[in-house]
Prior knowledge:
This protein is of the alpha/beta class. Helix content is 51%, strand content 12%. Helix 10 (205-220) links the parallel strand 6 and strand 7 (233-235). The radius of gyration is 22 Å and the shape is globular. It starts with a helix and ends with a helix.
Amino acid sequence: MKFSTEELIEGIRSGNKRLTAKAITLVESKKAEHRLQAEELLKQIMPFTGNSIRVGITGVPGAGKSTFIENFGRLAIANGKKVAVLAIDPSSSINKGSILGDKTRMEELAKEENAFIRPSPSSGFLGGVANTTFETMMICEAAGYDYILIETVGVGQSEVLVADITDVFLFLKIIGGGDELQGIKRGIMEMVDLIFINKVEQDNLQKAKNTRLELKRALDFIPPKEKDWKIPVLLGSALHNEGLAEVYTKIDEFIALKKSAGRFSEIRTHQAEKRFEYWVQEYILAMMKKSDAVEEAYISHKKNASEMVSSPSTEAKLFVEKFLAKEKR
Length: 329
């Protein structure tokens, strides 16, 4: 059954999970008629967005991201909040569908009336986020969710894309398993706002404390991302609900600090600008491919780039110049 834009908006605003999910599916669709309706829907819900705390949660596979999100989400709900989880699954390289199905891994949170869990395939999009995650967040905000938790794939070097759409970037760290170097890579450390060393038990407590000390030393060599904020490195166990209350408190403190310094709205503005730039590129490329002649040129220059006939940057420049020359005529 196809829903009208008005029906979807009414469903979103009333907290109807089924219609909220339908709206997200609409926004994720690449069909032309769906894109038009999605654009109208997003335009109409904009006045109701911007009131959530957006938390990006990353970490290597096995760091316990889903367990952390489930129990942190239940903690937030116990504190009177509504929680939306955008669980970005790795995608199958064959059919681009989700592999993990995070909703099945957060059974207790899924039962909560004030929780909404949306698994989405990353579809090969860099950074472990789906290309419509930002727009999905808008829908969840319009539906009245106070916390939006984004679980990333947690692989690759493009996690900056997660930091670019959230207010708080949380890095889940585990000790052992050859993970020590991963935890102190400069790229990750420059983006994080909070570090939680997970899966801490009595028998590895001393090792966890040593890891915390290493991380704090590494952070001393990196300029602070936010003035007057010393990145907390917390210990705990998401499975046993240990340390989560402290994470909850630190997130609130961080948001309060950014708001008092006027940085919160400033960063949100930058994020929206980056999304604008992303969609400009997407729409230009889509418009180019509507012309058979331009698409042929695109394929030709792409082939030259892939076969290293000349550099990819040169081929891209030649193609764009050719496209703009056609547009001027």
